[in-house]
Amino acid sequence: MATTVANLDSVIQVMTAEMELTARQDVLMRGLVDVRTFPKHKGSPLDRPKLGKLTAYDLVEGVAITNEQVYIDTDVSVNPTEVGLLTIVTRRMLGRAPSGFEAQIVRENKRAYAEKMEKDLLTLFSGFSVGLSGANAGISVGQFGAYITRVRGASEPGPEPLYAVLHPNHVWDIRSAIMGLTVGSGLVLNTGGIIAPENPNRAMREKSLGSFLGVPTFQSGLIAVDSSDDAYSGIFSKYAIMLYVNEEGSTDRQENARLRGWDLVYTGEYAAAEWVDAYGAYLLADATAPTA
């Protein structure tokens, strides 16, 4: 009788493929907002003031100016808080795990921290005062363009650069329109649709819409969808949202004698807040997953 693998199952070790981390959505908001460093050796919170606008009037020669102008300031208060997570690894487990397993854990801790920061920034979209309240309905190209215009045309216009970050299902609303397609049983040509101004094929392939209606437009699957299948996307100036970082995320490794292992503690400290309300607009719309 031939000797088989089953006969030597104590000698032949189990083989596994290279370890893979569970996929996560990309993070992008930190690169699109106003990032500042929280001052060291100062108390909390930090108040960031902004001076109001003055108004000029027509004058009459020889007549005194009576409309004295007074500067009035407003401020936004930010108070960084700690964010982090703990992973405990035992000495026994590390002795049996593949080489580099601890480094993978540290990498995943960092990814989890970055995703938490991303979600904190994305939730600020719902705080803008101006926006599309189109719950239970999709986003149209016209609505998308209208709120870009409203941010740029406000009495306190949003400074360039402007960005748009949409839920992926909102992106599909835009893509189906710019390709001149309707969504139904498959994709059907719609001659009354809007044709993409530049390269429609690229708009369908790329992860972002590129520069759409003059605004770099991205998608984020980390935008929360509520119980009614609606979600808040956003159009905003870089300076609409501020991110104050007190401590960048980092790992502390400490021996845990009671558990015969090590604590891997990943922590950082930051605060995310709206800076100027008029610099952004929200797009509340249906984000039901498409089926065709």
What does this structure look like?
- The protein is of the alpha+beta class and 292 residues long.
- The protein has 5 helices and 14 strands.
- It has helices at residues 91-96, 101-122, 141-153, 168-178, 200-205; strands spanning 34-37, 46-51, 73-78, 81-90, 131-134, 162-166, 181-184, 186-189, 210-212, 215-219, 230-237, 241-256, 261-274, 280-286.
- The protein is flat.
- Mean pLDDT is 82; it is low at 1-5, 181-185 and 187-201.
For the terminal residues, how far apart are their CA atoms? Answer: 57 Å
Strand order, largest beta sheet? 5-14-11-6-10-9
Q: In which range does the helix fraction lie?
A: 10-25%
Output the radius of gyration.
26 Å
Based on helices, strands and strand pairing, what is the structural class? alpha+beta
**Coarse morphology:** flat
Number of strands: 14
Keywords for this entry:
292 residues, alpha+beta, six-stranded mixed beta sheet, 5 helices, flat
Q: Outline of this structure?
A:
The protein is α+β, with helices and mostly antiparallel strands and 292 residues long.
List the SSEs and their pairings:
Layout: E1 34-37, E2 46-51, E3 73-78, E4 81-90, H1 91-96, H2 101-122, E5 131-134, H3 141-153, E6 162-166, H4 168-178, E7 181-184, E8 186-189, H5 200-205, E9 210-212, E10 215-219, E11 230-237, E12 241-256, E13 261-274, E14 280-286
Parallel strand pairs: 1-12, 5-14, 6-10
Antiparallel strand pairs: 2-3, 4-13, 6-11, 7-8, 9-10, 11-14, 12-13
